[in-house]
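Record type: monomer structure entry
Structure origin: computed from sequence
Chain ID: A
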Amino acid sequence: MGVADEPDAKECGKCRRNLPLASFARDRNRRDGLQVHCRECVAQYGAAHYRRRREAEGKAVRAVEGRADHLKRNYGLTEAERDAMVVSQRGLCVICLKAPAVHVDHCHETGRVRGVLCFNCNSAIGKLGDDPDAVRRAAAYLEGNAWKPTLVAPGVYQLPS
């Protein structure tokens, strides 16, 4: 008695092999509740289709789609909205006013987009933990107002505010 004669076997519509029912994925739309093609044939087709589609699109198209998808998924922005923000900033980073603005800056707590910055300024804000107080202390440090306590009386120090 062969596999084809058994009630728990089915012929694949693509490779024409008689396989056990476990070799077929479920499909509620089919009368027998199983797909027409075996899992192996479906996997081969999927891999070939993926390769054909990627080759047809080309590398440049994939790069542009990747950027657009990233903006929409992470920030809820279209490329046109991001470009409008850059134009409103005269094409420059709003912090250093030197480098071109290319990186979208957003609040990590609320997700709200704040603006478009250069790589260095966006990284600096991230390193300071998106904390305005830390940014103020860093600015005071750079301006020469060192974080040194002031002697008010013998043994009594006052920290700068």
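Annotation 1: The mean pLDDT is 86.
Annotation 2: Strands lie at 9-11, 18-20, 103-106, 113-117, 150-153, 156-158.
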